[in-house]
TrEMBL record:
GO molecular function, a single term: prenyltransferase activity
Organism: Ridgeia piscesae (Tubeworm)
Family: Belongs to the FPP/GGPP synthase family.
Protein known as: Decaprenyl-diphosphate synthase subunit 2
Keyword match S-adenosyl-L-methionine: no
GO CC terms: mitochondrion; transferase complex
């Protein structure tokens, strides 16, 4: 009875969100502005819009190139992993992406071309990114499911038939994970209109229109994720995955980000870890735990896979933070105050104000900060942290028997920590 009530609640949440999209489908528009799009980009008052930390495409750092050895190693590890789980994970959200509702949204999104709305950049990365970045969370969930295998004597064997060593319900968890993550990316495409200096009323209306599309599209994906969660008929999994969505929201309101979208002066590594877990680690960690729960694995195995996901997320964020220093070319213009090298350096200076000033100053000031960071030992310390989390992630897999899936997980983890 408890499971059915929970499923009914989640279904109702999904229905309410879906109705907002259904209204779009019936009217054929989303309160489209009466004037034509001005095709003129907008700018942020006082400074350029900063690249928001937490929107990691897991490998799509601007300082990477297809010829980079690390990128080639990552692509090889992902390609081999996709063969193991049975199909390219780019198909994971295909059913949702090809729905009539999102097709209508895509038509409306064409009106944003030329306006500079960040939602377009997110959409381009999602559909046209060729570096195997977008479905990594789901792929990790599938690999963990296959590496763990079935539990001997469990009732799952009588309820579901494994395909390529993975239960259908575990594939559903992977798809739900990707839908939640994609919804987050789309919602992050909403911009703060108060910080914009527009080129007239029409440009402002373009931005308002883009924000409406971002909100409704993200809500639609969350509605589908909610419905899919209810269909699993597992109250505990609904609770775990719902808490992951809560963590994503809480990440936007931590002390790590002040009203200027900057961390506080006295930001610590512990706060960096807390924010990173809420923003990205929670979803993958709790998804790995949920897929173990669906297959009726023990609490110990569930906790181990939770730890695996958490350490992988930390290692990947550290990899991204180090890219301006360790990529194929130096990139001082990509420094941001959220990165671990800047935080480590600020802790030693007992204030982050010098970094703030330089990061929002001239290119010469950024280059000087970049040089000081490069000459210090903070880069080596950040590298050590990245490798440490990678080692702990691989250690969490030690309970599983040797298999292609386990090896693929280890190879992907090593590729994430190759800095």
């Amino acid at each position: 009875m408890q499971a059915s009530n929970s499923a009914l609640y989640v279904s109702r949440v999904g229905l309410m969100l879906s109705r907002s999209i259904a209204s779009v489908k019936s009217t054929g528009s989303i309160s489209s502005p009466s004037v034509a799009c001005s095709n003129r980009p907008v700018q942020c008052q006082g400074r350029k819009l900063q690249q928001l930390r937490g929107i990691s495409f897991w490998g799509s750092s601007r300082n990477e190139s297809n010829s980079d050895k690390n990128v080639q190693g990552w692509k090889k590890a992902v390609s081999e992993a996709e063969k193991i789980v049975g199909y390219p994970t780019s198909f994971m959200s295909l059913r949702c992406l090809l729905s009539d509702e999102l097709s209508n949204v895509a038509i409306q999104m064409r009106k944003l071309v030329g306006t500079g709305h960040p939602l377009l950049q997110i959409a381009r990365k999602f559909f046209f990114d060729g570096k195997h970045n977008m479905q990594m969370r789901g792929l990790l969930v599938l690999l963990v499911s296959k590496a763990a295998g079935p539990v001997e004597g469990s009732t799952m064997e009588t309820r579901e038939t494994m395909v390529s060593g993975i239960y259908p319900s575990q594939r559903s968890v992977a798809e739900i994970t990707e839908m939640i993550h994609t919804a987050k990316l789309i919602h992050r495409g909403v911009i703060n209109l108060a910080q914009l200096a527009t080129n007239g009323e029409s440009s402002l209306q373009d931005m308002v229109f883009g924000n409406k599309i971002a909100v409704l599209s993200g809500d639609f994906l969350l509605a589908n994720a909610s419905a899919a969660l209810a269909a699993l008929h597992n109250t505990k999994v609904v609770e775990i995955m719902s808490s992951a969505i809560t963590d994503l929201m809480q990440a936007e309101f931590t002390r790590f980000s002040d009203h200027h979208n900057l961390p506080p002066d006295d930001a610590t590594v512990s706060e960096w870890e807390e924010h990173t877990f809420l923003a990205s680690g929670s979803l993958i960690a709790k998804s790995c735990k949920s897929t173990m729960l669906m297959a009726q694995h023990s609490d110990e195995v569930q906790q181990k896979m939770f730890d695996f996901g958490r350490h992988v997320a930390f290692a990947r964020q550290l990899y991204d933070d180090l890219q301006p220093f360790t990529g194929p070319t130096e990139a001082p213009d990509q420094l941001n105050p959220f990165s671990i090298p800047v935080i480590l350096a600020s802790l030693r200076q007992h204030s982050q104000e010098p970094a703030r000033t330089a990061l929002f100053g001239t290119l010469a000031e950024k280059k000087e900060l970049f040089r000081r960071l490069s000459d210090s030992d903070v880069i080596g310390e950040a590298r050590s942290l990245c490798h440490e989390h990678g080692v702990q992630a691989i250690e969490a897999l030690s309970q599983f028997p040797d298999s292609d899936a386990k090896l693929a997980l280890a190879n992907m983890t090593r590729a994430m920590t190759a800095v």
